[in-house]
Amino acid sequence: MSKKDEFKNFALKHPELSQYVKNNKVTWQKLYELYDIYGEKEDIWEKYLKTNEKDNISVKGILNTLKNINIDSLEENIASIQKAASFIEELTRPNEKKETKERVKAEEKIERFYSD
Known about the structure:
By secondary structure, this protein is an all-alpha fold. The protein is about 80% helix and about 0% strand.
């Protein structure tokens, strides 16, 4: 098996490497060069293969935020949103009623025209 094939297998075992490439943090060429020089078992890969600490911090932050949510305040905000939605619905209803009345009148005129 060639070194290139070995690297492909290594990359397939560690899909997190592709995230570094997709995020333009490193190129496949650079990763291959590191693999060619150091192989699989060197500490150089810790940087790329360890769990991303930023993700862990953000999850912890989200959990802390959820713990600190004031339920009363949340209920008030939801009630405000519901009121706003109801208000918007009321504003659009008269137009619907007006259009319906106009359509009924037009249909009545057509019926009278053809019934004669």
